[in-house]
Amino acid sequence: MQRLPIHPQGPTFSRIVTGAWRWNTVSPDTVERLIQTSLDEGISTFDHADIYGDHSNEEVFGKVLIKKPALRDKMELVSKCGIKFPSAKRPGAWIKHYDTSKEHITWSAENSLKMLCTDRLDLLLIHRPDPLLNPHEVAEAFSQLKQQGKVLHFGVSNFTQPQFSLLQKFLPMPLVTNQVEISLSRTESLFNGDLDLLMEHNASAMAWSPLGGGKLVAGERELFGKATKYNATYSQLSLAWLLKHPSNIFPVIGTTKPDRISEAAKSLDIKLDRQDWFEMLQWATGKEVA
Ligand SMILES: NC(=O)c1ccc[n+]([C@@H]2O[C@H](COP(=O)([O-])OP(=O)(O)OC[C@H]3O[C@@H](n4cnc5c(N)ncnc54)[C@H](OP(=O)(O)O)[C@@H]3O)[C@@H](O)[C@H]2O)c1
Fold first, then answer.
1. What are 5-9's contacts with CB under 8 Å, separation 24+?
2. Cα 76 to ligand 1 centroid, rounded to whole Å
3. Would you say the C-alpha torsion 219, 220, 225, 229 has a positive or negative sign?
4. CATH of domain 3-218+249-257
5. Residue 151: closest CA among 104, 197, 110, 198
6. Is 52 in the active site?
7. Distance 214 CA to ligand 1 centre (A)
């Protein structure tokens, strides 16, 4: 598995990242197998958020680290903060909203450390752009967490380009990524400047739902007419298509099946021809490039 710095100042991640969003649908034993299979395949980076599984997925993952503490130094942990919604686990929120106050960012990062049973997050992301985001407060929260060694690097998710640039201006450290939805079913970021802006900042995107949440690879698709030529599965072709982009996209896969993690890891072996890449784009968008 290829490993690359997502930004020149770090962190270094496995090129494919395993996402834990859907892991509340499987047993703790399966979670352990998903972690172990990822590591066996060289996928060392795990994507979390405070809210996944109604605030329970980090804790289930952390229990594996209690059982096998040596695994922590073999992996990089990403988590997110800033979304609140009504939940028995979070009394006080009566409406879904965003909170990027210094107090909440700090509390949420420290709580993620507790749930994940670790002393540090390799990367913390602001999950969604918050219309009430005060960049001074975010800068204070990030600086304090970094100075305390609790969070090593920072980034954002689902930010527009002006939101990314504005926040970056107020921070003493680089935003190392914008985690956005990119796949053959969501190609906007390739054309609207999202990836260009990240390249300008020497940062790379993390692509969430790289299989369109599964819909992309469901059923027979002309889009995957190249599967035989490359001796590849639909999911491998979908990931290889993202991996070919020169900005070094890091796809964040979401399967709950260990076998499918191994399948995804092999997508790095596929080197798509330029014209096949464009043919897949054409099938996906329904139109020829201008
Ligand atoms: N930042 C954000 O706002 C945001 C939003 C959404 C997600 N994320 C992150 O992105 C990660 C991935 O999102 P996602 O789960 O939507 O990603 P995905 O990889 O596009 O979709 C995974 C889904 O596809 C299904 N699937 C069907 N065929 C598959 C195949 N051949 N191989 C693999 N999966 C197949 C999986 O089912 P099985 O489980 O049965 O394999 C699973 O339900 C999440 O875990 C989370 O970490 C971030």
1. 6/123, 6/176, 6/177, 6/203, 6/204, 6/206, 6/248, 6/250, 7/153, 7/174, 7/176, 7/177, 7/201, 7/202, 7/203, 7/204, 8/202, 9/153, 9/173, 9/174, 9/176
2. 19
3. positive
4. 3.20.20.100
5. 110
6. yes
7. 6
Contacts of residue 207, defined as CB under 8 A and 6 or more positions apart, other chains included, come to 179, 180, 181, 182, 183, 242, 249, 250, 251, 252
Enumerate the domain spans of the chain.
Answer: 3-218+249-257
Interval 225-242: pLDDT, tens? 889 899 999 999 999 999
| Contact (CB, 8 A) for 124 and 150 | no
Which residues in the chain belong to E strands, given as ranges?
3-5, 12-14, 17-19, 45-47, 76-81, 83-84, 97-98, 123-126, 154-157, 175-181, 206-208, 250-253
Ligand 1 neighbour 214 (Cβ under 6 A): yes
Bond preceding residue 11 cis, omega within 30 of 0: yes
- Tell me the per-residue pLDDT of 203-216, one tens digit each, with 9 for 90 and over: 999 999 999 999 99
